[in-house]
Amino acid sequence: MDKQPKHWSTITETGTVVGMRILLMCYRLFGHKGFRLLLAPVILYFYFRKHATRAASKEYLQKIAPFLPEHKRKKLTPFRHFWMFGEVLLDKFLVWMGKIKPQDVVFETPDTFQKIEASKLGGIIVVSHLGNTEICSALAHQLPNIKVTMLVYTQHAQKFNKMLQRTNANATINLIQVTDMSPATAMILSERVAAGEFVVIAGDRTPVNNGGRVSIVDFLGAQAALPQGAFILASLLRCPVYLMFCLKQDSAYHIYMETFSEKLSFARKEREQKLEEAVTLYAKRLEYYCQLAPLQWFNFFPFWHVESKDQQALINNSDA
């Protein structure tokens, strides 16, 4: 029997806290140019040593290639993909160090941001591991009257939080560490949304413990499992749902935010169908933004190696 692919949460992240500390120290000592010089051997190390990560990169690039014009396909190499990861890692440091200038940020959908501020209503913001989510979150904290709570998985949350504190002691962000959605967590989130706050949740990684809450949808021409969690939560809270992406384009950070649903609510008998439709629509929007920045996809694991919900549940609960 073929070995089942590991669930993403069992795979060590490419960027560890120790590695990030070293790179951050390099930036502080040598600046941007020095950082880029020292980044090269680090990227080369991961490129040649992390075979599974390189294979995942190659698989993704093969999937996205048919969706791109010929001149963009030539730039699709795993090494460029790894290099972009390092560049975006530096961007994460810069935003939390307060070094991102207003002129470096382009709000592609200003009407949506103005609408959110004017409505005074809370909601769900669905993000992904495409582009630089940290920039979106940090900028959201700088917008007047906007409070954000990020849902993050326990094994990565502590590392991320420590890194932020070391980067900037004044950088605060509300984190809730979850492996599944308990009634207590749902109650906390309900109270925050009712108070006009926003809950940020990734829509492109399947649950750590709750393997059944996924939809198998078409993504970049193949079947992939995407979580229903964000949309289940939104339906329970009966609140607006937004999609947010931050992509680096032409040396600037372009933030896209679009309304996914004014209120995601449906009857019990049509629940599964509506959830499938919501996840399918999300997959299409994610697919669209992947085409805008194809090298900024940072899910370095076997993303398409799922054929059914039963198989996904098996993978999620496997120790292998």
TrEMBL record:
Protein's GO biological process: glycolipid biosynthetic process
Gene Ontology cellular component annotations, sorted alphabetically: plasma membrane
UniProtKB keywords: Acyltransferase, Cell inner membrane, Cell membrane, Membrane, Transferase
Domain of life (superkingdom): Bacteria
Keyword Hydrolase: no
CDD domains in UniProt: LPLAT_LABLAT-like (cd07984)
Cell compartment(s), UniProt: Cell inner membrane
A Pfam family hit: Lip_A_acyltrans
A GO MF term: acyltransferase activity
Record protein name field: Lipid A biosynthesis acyltransferase
Native source species: Marinomonas primoryensis
